[in-house]
Structure formats: C-alpha cells, structure tokens
Design a protein that fits this description.
The complex is a heterodimer of chains A (about 180) and B (about 475). Chain A is built from five helices and four strands. With about 180 residues, chain A is an alpha+beta fold. Chain A has a four-stranded antiparallel beta sheet, covered by helices on one side. In chain B, about 70% of the residues lie in helices and about 0% in strands. Chain B has 17 helices and no strands. In chain B, about 50% of the residues are buried. The chains are: A alpha+beta (about 180), B mainly alpha (about 475). Chains A and B meet through α1, β2, α2, α3 and α4 of A and α1, α2, α7, α9 and α17 of B.
Chain lengths: ~180, ~475
C-alpha cells in the first residue's frame, strides 16, 4: 500500500469464482440488476450473454473499420493517381495517364489493408492492450481464467461497493470462492 | 438471454463417430491441457526427426540462393521464349496452397461452419509459411533483389521513378503483401487468448515471460471479448474478398497478357478454385500426420477429414470445368494460335505432363464421391499428395506449354528446370517444413479457446 493517490480504495475489488458458464451468466445478470456498474467478467472463451448482461452493447469498431477502409481506398487510388498523372506521367502503350480501371486492384488491396489494420490496432487500443500489469492477476486462482474457470470482479471504485456488503452479495450468488483483489 | 439451465442441456441428437467434431467426455480443462501439453511438455523424438529433416533441406535453399546471387539468374532454366519457368510456377503453387488457410479461417467462419474450429489455426500458419515460400520467388527472380525495392514498391526515391500501376505485376505486389499482412494479423489475433493460456500454464519462467509479452496482458475480460469477437468477424469479412482477390490478381499476371493459353476470362475463378483445391490438399497432408503424431483424433475427427475431402471434390470439379473450358475455347475461338496451343498442349512435347495433370486433378479426386474412400485416412493422405502434384503440374503446363511455342516457329524452344531451379523448389519445402515444426512446438496448433466453445455445455444461447 505505498505511493497511492489519496482517496484510492484500499483494494482493487472483490472477485467471485464460478465453475460453469451458466452460473457466470446468471451471476452477471444479478450483479447488473443490483446496480453495480464498475464490473467485469473474465471467461476462458467469449460468452456473448455475459457481455450483454453486464451492459456492454456497442463496440465502436465497425465504424472505425469503415473509416479505415475509406481512408485506405482514397490513399490507394491517390497514390496511383498522383504517381501516374502528376509526379511521373509516362506514356505506356498509349494508355491515358489516369488509367483508373487499372488502379482498381491496388485501390482494393489498400482498402482491405487499412481496414484490417484499423480493426486489429483499434481492438488493441479499445481493450487497452498491451497492458503489462493488472491487479486481477494478484488472485492466485485467476490463472484458471484462461483454462476452465469463470470470474466476476466488482471494482472498489463502484459507488455501490462496500467491502462487507458486496462480499455478502457475491456469496448470495451461489459461490464460496470470493477473493479480495489487491492493487 | 440464456438461462443457466440452457447451458447444461445435452446435445439434441446422439452423434455417431462420423458426425462428431469433438470426442465425448471432454471438459474445458481437458481440452486446454491436452492441446497446451504439445507445447509445454518435452518434444517427442519424432519432432526432432521431422524438424531436423526440414532444417537439412532448408540448407539446400540457402545454397541455391547463395549460388543464384553469386552467379546470376542464368543458373536457372528460363530463357526466351520461356521467360517464366519454375520460379513463377512455384510462386503460384505456394501462394495457392496458402488460400485454404484463409478460406477455413474466414469464409467458413462467416458461413458458421463449426467444424473449422480445430483446423483453422494450423491452416492459417500454413498460409503464412506458404506465402513466405512464395515470396522467395518473385523477390529472387529479379536477380538483384536489393534493387527490387524500387522496382516493386512505390516510394519516393532519389531517381524520381514510380512503378507502372497499369501492370498486373504491381497489382500482385499489393495483393500479396496485403495478403501476407492481413493473414499474419488474423493469425496473431486468434493466438492472443491462447498465448495467455500458455502464459498461465507454462511451468518455466522464461516461457512465461515470452508468452506473457506476446499475450499483451490478455485476461479474458468480457469487455475485451466483446471487442475481440467484433474484430475477428470484421477481419473474416475483410479476408474473404481479399483471398478471392489474391489469386484473381495472380491469374491477371497471365490473363492480361496476349499469350495463347493465358488470355482467357476463365482464369480468375479457375485459379481461385485451384488455389482452394491445392490448399485443402495441403491441409490434409499436414493434418493427417499431425493428428496421428500428437493423438489429436479427439479434436481433428473423421468428420473434419471428410468435410475437407468434400471441399476438395467440389473445387476439383470446378478446376476440371476450367480445363474443359480451356479446351473448348481453344476450338470455339477459331483462332489458329489458340487451337494450336491446346492441341500442342495435349499432343506436343509436354503432353505427358498434361495428361498426368488430368489424371491427378480430374480423375483421381472423383474417387472421393465414394464415402468409404473419403473416410479412409491413408487413402485421403495419398489423394492429397496426388492433388498437390497435379496442381504443380497444372501451373507447369499453363506456363511452359503456352510460352514454348511462340507465334513464329523460329522462336520456338524448350524449357526444363536446372539443378538450381529444383534446389530452390525443394529448398522452400525445407523452409516450409522447418517453420511448421517450429510452429507446432512453440504455439498451440489448435485454437484452444475456440475448442472450449465446442465442449458440450459451453453453449449459452448465442452459440447454438
């Protein structure tokens, strides 16, 4: 507990462990109904129902990728046009400088390239990865979150969080494995 | 919204051995342990043998490259009139093989073909390694690859030169480099959750650190999965037209030229089908020994092999249609050079290769109509090798027979690969095998997190 800004809660949060996907979905619903919002669930594979239960509905990624693709297409065509018409106009087989039909394949490829780069880098950015340190890893059994166990963590910065009451609430979800997550 | 009781429902119908995609009795834990054990336990002797063999053959590639750079591309067989030889044949062969990986990971994902799950990871790896092998040829056939940067890539150089964007060869640069980049990203994104699994399960400190860095702090957060799934679907949607465009552009290298035997509108679809055909053959060639060696029959089941055989049969028939149309158009066009080309292809000096190609690519795969043969693993392995040979012959026939009889008989010639052509070809196989063995040893060859979704009871409402 050193070097922490004043006002920071003494722990990161409380974490509950579950053994089946059904349990974690049911628990996520109840956690959300109880009004907790600074919550995250950790599962070994994607369970869309958990994300929905916790209220993560919209990902801005599709719009970002669309923008990336449009930018890529304009860049690709711009490159072909600029190089063939403005910077280096060269008569090749009597074809027009702006041979736009021939510019379609490079334009198509750069569209895909920029869109795909946006998708991957955007996903990493939105998820805050790479993230060298995160408190949840302080729970020893959390290593099983990438094997076969399911976790829900209510963070201490949630306004409804109370070290005792929240623990009791989590116990009411049908699990005895509740851990305090240190910072 | 799924209710918790949904999760425990047993599968609606009892599956037979031929139908199932995962053996019964598996749990999230057992799937994780069995797949990660391949990476986390000591390598079996067979691994060292295979890796050693691949690595030894790789040395042949290094020798072939060194000799090529020292002496120039005259050590290879191509010469006028056959200006393109084994370099481009091998390029097309390798890049075609890669297509199955993207097809499995992207197109089958969009079509909700669940059986793709256990084979997509190593098929994607195969794509990457095949593209690496393919890239070798266009780079080195320039003779002076250190100059090819300005021949191939548009960048502001001091000579003020820009590539000709009207040429299919520059389209190829864009298509193949985009394909390599997107395939690599797709593969890596798919690996992130599994790298986290290896990080959490590796008993060795050094391995934990390396996998930890690569996993970038992945912790399976629901928020992260939400964005992750969106990205994965978007990438699949982007990779699908991309993979179709790549072999289309490769076929433009030929179809845009005026050479009889190349100048045909059938080329793009027929090349794409051929690429998928060759790719699935290669996936089978790799999957069959892999499942045997590592006891992965629970995950790569007979159902998977049979489905791949069906894809091979379907694409093989499209390819057969392509050959038929080529012959038909040779006759129907009434162009004497086209007619001569197809007649010469069937009866000329390379006729043996043409008929061998028909045997391998058209006749042999028709045996897959028979269910007993389609589910006979050694036979499938054999057919997959036959198709790989056939697809190589196809490119040989298309390229060499179209070029070796020029419009004027005074410009006729013959082509055969030299020792260095063959050394480079066999050498890239060494590179491919070496990379594959390293991959199987260092990374999970089957997507663990996706296999978890196949475990009975994993499905909440959305997964049904």
């Amino acid at each position: 507990m050193k070097g922490r800004a004043p006002g920071t809660p003494p722990i990161y949060g409380l974490m509950a462990e579950f053994h089946s996907p059904g349990d974690v979905v049911a628990a996520a619903v109840k956690v959300h109904e109880a009004g907790y919002r600074k919550v995250d669930a950790y599962t070994p594979y994607p369970i869309e129902a958990v994300a929905e239960a916790l209220g993560f509905h919209h990902s801005p990624l599709p719009k970002m990728v669309l923008a990336g693709g449009i930018l890529g297409g304009l860049s690709g065509f711009g490159l072909c046009y600029w190089a063939s018409v403005i910077e280096y106009p060269f008569n090749i087989g009597g074809r027009p400088f702006n041979s736009w039909v021939s510019f379609i394949p490079p334009t198509f490829e750069t569209t895909i390239l920029f869109a795909a780069l946006t998708a991957v880098l955007g996903m990493l950015a939105l998820n805050g990865l790479p993230e060298p340190y995160h408190p949840v890893f302080n729970v020893p059994s959390f290593a099983l979150a990438t094997r076969d166990k399911f976790f829900i963590c209510i963070e201490a910065r949630d306004p409804k969080f109370d070290r005792v009451a929240t623990r009791r609430f989590l116990e009411g979800l049908g699990t005895n494995e509740i851990y305090e997550v240190e910072h | 919204m799924a209710s918790p009781t949904d999760a425990a429902k047993p599968p609606a119908t009892l599956q037979t051995e031929h139908d199932r995609l995962i053996a019964p009795g598996h749990t999230f834990g057992s799937v994780t342990d069995q797949i990660s054990a391949i990476v986390l336990t000591k390598a079996p002797k067979g691994w060292w043998l295979g890796f050693g063999l691949g690595f030894a053959v790789l040395q042949l590639l290094l020798y072939a490259i060194a000799h090529l750079l020292f002496r120039g591309i005259g050590v290879w067989g191509p010469n006028i009139p056959v200006g393109w030889g084994m370099d481009i044949i091998n390029f097309v062969w390798w890049i075609g093989i890669g297509h199955a990986g993207t097809l499995i990971s992207a197109i089958l994902l969009l079509l909700r073909q669940e059986w793709r799950t256990s084979i997509n990871r190593f098929a994607e790896a195969m794509t990457l390694f095949a593209v690496s092998c393919a890239a070798f040829y266009p780079i080195f056939h320039t003779g002076r690859p250190w100059l090819s940067i300005y021949w191939l890539f548009p960048y502001p150089n001091v000579m003020g030169l820009w590539p000709n964007f009207r040429s299919p060869l520059i389209w190829d640069v864009f298509a193949v480099s985009t394909y390599a980049t997107v395939s690599a990203m797709f593969w890596f994104v798919g690996l992130i959750p599994d790298l986290a699994t290896l990080r959490d399960r590796s008993p060795k400190k050094a391995a934990k650190v390396v996998y930890g860095i690569l996993a970038m702090g992945w912790r399976g957060s629901a928020r992260h999965w939400h964005n992750y799934e969106t990205t994965y679907l978007l990438l699949a949607g982007l990779a699908t037209p991309l993979v179709l465009s790549v072999h289309t552009v490769v076929s433009f290298d030929f179809a845009v030229g005026l050479v009889p035997g190349w100048h045909a509108t059938i080329f793009p679809p027929y090349f794409v089908a051929g690429a998928i055909y060759a790719g699935f053959a290669m996936v089978l060639t790799l999957a069959i020994p892999l499942r045997k060696a590592y006891g992965l029959e629970d995950f790569i089941t007979l159902k998977h092999l049979e489905n791949m055989a069906k894809v091979m049969l379907a694409t093989g028939l499209i390819v057969a249609y392509g050959y038929t149309m080529e012959a038909f158009m040779g006759w129907y066009s009434a162009a004497r050079y086209e007619r001569f080309m197809i007649w010469n292809r069937m009866t000329g000096p390379y006729a043996a290769m043409y008929w061998a190609l028909i045997l391998c690519n058209v006749i042999a795969p028709n045996t897959l109509w028979v269910k007993n043969l389609r589910t006979n693993v050694p036979f499938l392995f054999f057919i997959s090798l036959v198709v790989s040979v056939g697809m190589w012959l196809e490119r040989y026939v298309i390229i060499v027979t179209s070029l070796h009889r020029d419009f004027l008989p005074s410009s006729w010639g013959m082509y055969s690969g030299t020792f260095y052509d063959w050394a480079a070809f066999i050498g890239t196989m060494g590179l491919f095998v070496t990379l594959l063995f390293l991959f199987v040893r260092l990374l999970p060859a089957i997507s663990i997190f996706e296999m978890r979704t196949m475990v009975p009871g994993a499905a909440t409402e959305e997964h049904k």
